[in-house]
Design brief:
single chain, 81 residues, 2 helices, elongated
């Protein structure tokens, strides 16, 4: 599975509850990139990967629908019986 959440914190409920006592404000690390440009590159790559997956899913569904329509058309009996 492609990862699209690398800019978000991955915390459970226990860490969320513990963050109430964090007065310094540095409890979560949100960005795992070395620079803003790298973060942008990762985000764009993840976005286009998801677009590619959406296109692949759509094409697969269209091909299945087309194949089902063709099989119905081919199963029609033309000899009048």
């Amino acid at each position: 599975m492609l990862r699209t959440d690398f800019l978000f914190s991955k915390a459970g409920w226990l860490i969320g509850a513990g963050s109430v006592f964090n007065l310094a404000g540095n409890y979560y690390s949100f960005n795992s990139s070395l620079s803003g440009a790298e973060a942008d590159r990762k985000a764009l790559e993840a976005d286009w990967n998801m677009v590619g997956l959406d296109l692949e899913k759509s094409l697969t569904a269209y091909e299945a629908e087309l194949q089902a329509a063709q099989s119905k058309q081919l199963s029609f009996n033309f000899d009048g019986r």
